[in-house]
Amino acid sequence: MIALSTFAAHIEQGLNAVGQKYNIKFAVFSDAGTYKKAFKSREKKEKYTNGLLTAGSSSVLPTQGLTIATQNASFEIVVALPTPSTDGEIIAAHRAVLDEYFKRYEVQAIEQPVTDANGNAAMTTYSVGAVYSLASTGTVAVRDGIGTSITFDVYIEYGYIENGLNSNDCKFTLDGYPLPFRAVKITKSPQVQSDSYSDTEGRGTSKNLSFARSFDFILPALSGKTGIGSIVNAELLDNDLNKIHTLTVQMGTNAETKTYSVVFGETTASLEGVDNVGNTVALIEAAVAIPQLNVGE
Known about the structure:
This protein has three helices and 18 strands.
């Protein structure tokens, strides 16, 4: 399992990276802690915006010794409002930092120290996906140790797997354009020889004669005269039957990139009311050249 303090340290690092351009410095605690007051010296005075990350519900799926888990958490920051004349400016700056950092889905590799059954220390790597809500505005109140202040709240869902592969680490392009998928299913379907073999014990065995490979994507529909949107729309609305496209697949950040020649299979666009349009696209590995066999050979 990953300690909550590890997630807190990651959030603090990310917020401080964004907060530099607003001259805001964050101090993030986990579960419990006291507010970090301004540090004073003759040279400088540093002010911190305090944040507290607390654990919510969690679950662990036992999988043959591997750790697969989800962890919900709540993150609250408290922004000091020293003078009414600057309240609006301070609140707007903090809102800008929070919106920039928490607007995304984030995937990270986190190392966590563990101890095995023999007492030996080691490092375990987890692939972690984090989904953030946008920060909601709380209340203005007088709080102990910080004075007049306002709160912001963010809700976070972590999902992680030990030494795992995250979907966001897998990259696909079509004719050089990135495919911004919501979901992908890769299928390899073998054709099995119909007459099986049997050994002396009567056990039937068989072999594959050929296979077909397909890639099924769920995509947001995109507009534009170039890019994925134009390729999908042309396939839907034009009359091309066997136009060859180039698909690249990288199953993980450090994995080898594979290249396939593909044609479009069943492709749909779903439209309803004022909802965003969605596409489902099937790409099937294509026969670029069909070998010719001479009769009698």
